[in-house]
Design a protein that fits this description.
The protein has 275 residues and is an alpha/beta fold. The chain has eleven helices and ten strands. It has an eight-stranded mixed beta sheet with strand order 2-3-6-4-7-8-9-10, sandwiched between helices. Strand 9, helix 10 and strand 10 form a beta-alpha-beta unit. Helix 5 crosses helix 6. The protein is globular. The N and C termini lie far apart (78 Å).
């Protein structure tokens, strides 16, 4: 009997060691490889030529010796220009992936200023929170220098870009802030996937959308799919419950996923009415 108990104890200790080792190894991987989970950039050579059908111009801003910001300015399709949209895109590839969305705004008389974050497209340098906030502020200043007043500027964020757009709107005035599939914060989203880890300790990125929205004075409109498999819909509900002010709006897209909201007539109708 004692021999059997000793054997069982040995197996128990063995499995505990295996589980603990796996837990530690996965935690280490989450810490050192978090950029691989969060960011999926595709870089482009400096001499790459964009082939967009819509009229555009490209600007390269050299920030320092290693960091540059590549910005594409899509022109309005109408005779008169009503305003400008600063478009903060998601975490995939580069401007090539998101350029098609510029048409939703340019057909209504808006220019669209769409930037690639460092390490995305032809932008160089390392992605981090401070540098992307610096980049969006630089774009805002360029838009203002182009003759657009704050009441004609729309700040738009998609997925990863929602927190970045919210930060810009928290420090600069705009006509409206539009968020497509936002996260409450990176920490909140990470907790959803890695609930068993102390994510606040492990994360090098936080982008607290909830904190930024508290400082945004412009009206906020959120579009979010109820079946979003990447950023759950409850992120938008939590923002609505905790930080919305009078005039802010959440528009649920029933059955919408993370990357198909623009296929829904409701999304197009509501966006058209905003513009």
């Amino acid at each position: 009997m004692k021999k059997q108990r000793s054997k069982q104890k040995h197996y128990l200790v063995k499995w505990i060691r295996i589980v603990v080792s796996l837990y530690v190894l996965i935690g280490v991987a989450l810490y050192f490889l978090q950029e691989k989970f969060l960011l999926h950039p595709v870089s482009l050579p400096s001499d790459y030529k964009f082939q967009f059908k819509a009229p555009f111009e490209e600007r390269l801003v050299q920030y320092n010796s290693i960091t540059s910001f590549d910005i594409v300015r899509f022109k309005s399709q109408t005779d008169s220009t009503r305003g400008a949209v600063i478009y903060c895109h998601g975490n995939m590839e580069n401007v090539n992936r998101y350029a098609k969305f510029a048409n939703y705004f340019t057909q209504h008389g808006y220019e669209v200023w769409m930037m690639d974050y460092p390490s995305f497209g032809k932008s160089t340098g390392k992605f981090n929170e401070a540098i992307v906030y610096t980049e969006t502020l630089q774009v805002y200043k360029m838009v203002r220098a182009a003759g657009f007043s704050p009441d004609s500027i729309i700040i738009y964020g998609k997925s990863l870009g929602t927190g970045i757009a919210s930060q810009l709107a928290s420090v600069r005035d705009c006509k409206i802030l539009i968020l497509e599939s936002p996260y409450y914060s990176v920490a909140n989203l990470a907790t959803h996937y890695c609930w068993m880890y102390p994510v606040n300790f492990l994360l090098r990125y936080h982008i607290p959308t909830n904190e930024y929205l508290k400082k945004v004075t412009a009206p906020v409109t959120i579009f979010h799919g109820t079946d979003d498999e990447t950023i759950p819909f409850d992120n938008a509900e939590k923002l609505q419950k905790e930080v919305f002010k009078k005039g802010d709006t959440l528009i649920p897209i029933k059955g919408g996923h993370h990357n198909d909201l623009n296929d829904f007539p409701l999304m197009q109708q509501k966006l058209n009415s905003l513009l």
